[in-house]
Predict the 3D structure of the following.
Amino acid sequence: MKKSVIIIIIIIIILLILLLVNISNITTKSNQICLIYNYYERDDLYKENFIYFLENGIYEEVDYYIVINGNCTVKIPKRKNVFVYYRKNVGYDFGAYSYAVNNKLIKNYDYYFFMNTSVRGPYLRDTNEKWYDHFIPLFNANVHLVGTSISICTSNAYCVYDDNYKRKTNPHIQTMFFGMDQQYFIELKNDHFFDEDEIIKMDFTDLIKMKEVGLSQKAIEKGYNINCILSKYRDLDYLTLDHDINETSLDGDPYFSDAYFGETIDPYEVIFFKTNRI
């Protein structure tokens, strides 16, 4: 009898150990933030951007979906919260994002971030900070879409995603890095915004208008404001803004040399910095 009890106790202990190991292996399911990274190895600059992010931007409390478009010579670390997928290089950024959104996400998240490989970061002055700490406070009851910077278009034809929707300005989050909360993510999915089959058939001009600009304009149409961490563009009312606040911008775009109120954007101010413009 005593022998049987000992055996049962041993079995229970083994089962508990296995349970703890299993819980450890799936801790990523408790993560409430994800980032979808679109990688295209165009040149050494893009490759260096990717390596920098892998070395500095990966946290265990965030799930990462890395979409490789074509070839990749970068060694990606194996982690339980880093998922890597390969596809043909079609549909540009939103083709890759839609591929992940429709096929690869393991769960629902509170916040969804998107990033392409033209960006290098995170640039953080305090190494104890996390990159997402700077973006999540931008969300509120009427802001469901945020980013590093905002372009305030007034005349560029690329910036009008719907010819029937006329505004004096067409502000939009610049889509090399952006984030949205679960509410807006679900609304976009229900509106078939992430339709990969449709996206890969679009030409580049339509992609800019319908996806890069449309991402923000659809939010504004719904009565939502947008926001970014770039200080002089932060916390403005983009629902009513009727002019470009920056006289030195290039067609509303501050992301060029001397185009940010006569200066050049500081990488540490935007955390994720677009390297192929400056």
